[in-house]
DNA sequence: GCAAGATTGTTATTGAAAATAACCGTTATG
DNA sequence: CATAACGGTTATTTTCAATAACAATCTTGC
């Protein structure tokens, strides 16, 4: 039988003072944690890349092209999981700044072979190092072991087959 | 002295056939891995939540309200790192569906105390379980150890002080 | 006690990014 | 050889985050 003086389930606790907000169920969801972790890093990466007039997405494109010389736009879009139509303006900007080139490929006159220029490769290297440092700072709560663990787990999750 | 028959640094390798795209430098950046991992989970979570006419953000709001009865909109916005102006329409929709309530708080007539209804709490519980299952499926490449490690690292990174 | 400033929820507006559709030239396929 | 599929492009739409301004209320410093 129900207790007397029972409080309804949706009662507001007395101690509801101050901003001690609990994650609760949400905190046990990995997707939530991943997003929060990413949100910690993203603004910092954005900040350091802006010094080179790069956004995260254009840096990603540049970096992919450096590491995959000759890649086609469709391949690049698939690798970065974006629409190839939205890729065009980004490639345009990178080419404008002479960080990459669109080369005609003789065997298939539809596609372009994307390659990075020397400037592009150097900029990528410098920017990547800065991003790495920014990440390190943003993740200063993790010791080296944790960071290594995180990288390893992410690699196992994502590596070997893009899906 | 330079070799004869030297190929320029930006040459396109012969084996550039098939979609074997390499992450390269990008793959060593944690932010990139976090985003990719999140991108693996997000669409699945979106899919299962859509069955209850919820989006990820509205589910997050509902869940937060369930776990923090009496929370104010500004607090909620801060906790979820979004603008309180953008929160309004989401709260409106949840209230419309009678999943939550805006209660007037007598001590401060500016703010509302957000509470979940019984329906809201039940829906949250069901939806959360479905999201959990969807995450498990999306992360099937990780064994239990890896999953535990990932959760633990994320918890250390994010827990104890929102910053 | 009161004026000035800060806070809460709200609306409207803006801006940027992602998704969709259609098109042209080219290549692959039956 | 006709038709379909593909790669790049453009234009358009949809979606989402960010900004500004406002009324009502509360807090503060004097």
Task: Summarize the structure in words.
- The structure is a homodimer of 163-residue chains.
- Chain A has 163 residues and is mostly helical.
- Chain A has a domain at 28-138: Winged helix-like DNA-binding domain superfamily/Winged helix DNA-binding domain (Arc Repressor Mutant, subunit A, Orthogonal Bundle), CATH 1.10.10.
- Chain A contains 6 helices and 2 strands; from the N terminus they run H-H-H-H-E-E-H-H.
- Chain A has a two-stranded antiparallel ribbon with strand order 1-2.
- In chain A, a hairpin with a 7-residue loop joins strand 1 and strand 2.
- In chain A, helix 1 (30-50) packs across helix 5 (118-138) and helix 2 (56-67) crosses helix 5.
- Mean pLDDT of chain A is 89; it is low at 1-7.
- At the A-B interface, helix 1, helix 2, helix 3, strand 2 and helix 5 of A face helix 1, helix 2, helix 3, strand 2 and helix 5 of B.
- Chain A binds a DNA duplex (30 and 30 nucleotides) through residues 57, 72-74, 82-88, 108-112.
Map the helices and strands.
The structure is a homodimer of 163-residue chains.
Chain A: H1 30-50, H2 56-67, H3 73-79, H4 84-96, E1 100-104, E2 112-116, H5 118-138, H6 144-158
Antiparallel strand pairs in A: 1-2
Helix pairs in contact in A: 1-5, 2-5
The structure holds a DNA duplex (30 and 30 nucleotides).
Principal-axis shape of chain A equals elongated
Biggest sheet, spatial arrangement of strands of chain A:
1-2
* Helix segment tally of chain A: 6
Uncertain stretches of 5 or more adjacent residues of chain A = 1-7
The portion of residues assigned to helices of chain A is 40-55%
Order of helices and strands of chain A: HHHHEEHH
- Termini separation of chain A (Å)? 55 Å
CATH fold title of the domain at 28-138 in chain A:
Arc Repressor Mutant, subunit A
At the first level of CATH, what is the class of the domain at 28-138 in chain A?
Mainly Alpha
> What oligomeric state best describes the polypeptide chains here?
homodimer
Name given to the CATH homologous superfamily of the domain at 28-138 in chain A: Winged helix-like DNA-binding domain superfamily/Winged helix DNA-binding domain
